[in-house]
Amino acid sequence: MPVGRPAVVGGVLIGELAERTGVSPRSLRYYERQGLLVSVRKGNGYREYDAEAVRTVCVIRSLLAAGLNTETIARMLPCMRMDGPRVVPCAGLVEDLDAERRRIDREIAALVHSRGLLSEVIDAARSDDKVTSRG
């Protein structure tokens, strides 16, 4: 253990958790503020996370990558577990996750529509440029 780094028994410090998970300390503090992650403040002010924190952060990252917001994740997190690289919910969450998938599908459809409109505007501008440059 590097000199000057306090020993942690049964847990990890924020820097080590960040290193193990690839998540910045700033993001880990954000997860705490959102109620997704819990640490204990030691007398020296260091945050200490329990042994499950690495798994918890992996689940959080997977759910964020899937498009869920932190409020939804906070509600679902107690019922999630890792099975290798996969996040597995308890059976009671399937309906909620299905609703989230439908929400994401609606957002994708709206984005595709917006992209189409933007393409039309760009195409019109390019057509206008060609006409103007010929004239």
TrEMBL record:
The keyword DNA-binding applies. It comes from Allokutzneria albata. The keyword Cytoplasm does not apply. Residues 14-79 form the HTH merR-type domain. Keywords: DNA-binding. This is DNA-binding transcriptional regulator, MerR family. Pfam families: MerR_1. One of its GO terms (molecular function) is DNA-binding transcription factor activity. InterPro entries: DNA-bd_dom_put_sf (IPR009061), MerR-type_HTH_dom (IPR000551), MerR_fam (IPR047057).
